[in-house]
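ARCHIVE CARD
CATEGORY: sequence design from structure
SOURCE FIELD: tokenized fold
FIELD CONTENT:
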């Protein structure tokens, strides 16, 4: 999992796959990795609340929150307009895409 940092935002309910109470952050990430459809986590340290996400928890899709949440995402898989680390992260989902901070679709080469 890649750490995406701290953000004053949390997942909207339509992206939450599961909610887990009273777990430490490493356990939250492990729970996500054990579920193929989980692409990321948001974690609130104050009460050890873990939300497993159906999409990467990019700041642009989070709902505002008064306190910080710790964000993490599964490595190696990113959809268009999502943060990425390498071209391969994008190409696994969309051929002819490229990583430029976010995944972008490129025109096919001729």
């Amino acid at each position: 999992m890649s750490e995406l940092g701290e953000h004053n935002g949390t997942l909207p309910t339509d992206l939450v796959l599961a909610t887990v109470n009273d777990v430490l952050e490493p356990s939250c990430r492990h729970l996500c990795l054990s579920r193929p459809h989980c692409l990321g986590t948001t974690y609130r340290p104050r009460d050890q609340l873990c939300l497993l996400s159906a999409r990467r928890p990019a700041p642009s899709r989070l709902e505002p929150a008064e306190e910080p949440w710790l964000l993490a995402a599964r490595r190696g898989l990113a959809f268009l307009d999502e943060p990425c680390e390498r071209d391969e992260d994008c190409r696994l989902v969309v051929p002819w895409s490229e990583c430029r901070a976010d995944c972008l679709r490129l025109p096919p080469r001729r």
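CARD ANNOTATION: The helical segments are 25-33, 87-91. The chain has two helices and seven strands.
SHELF: design records, drawer C
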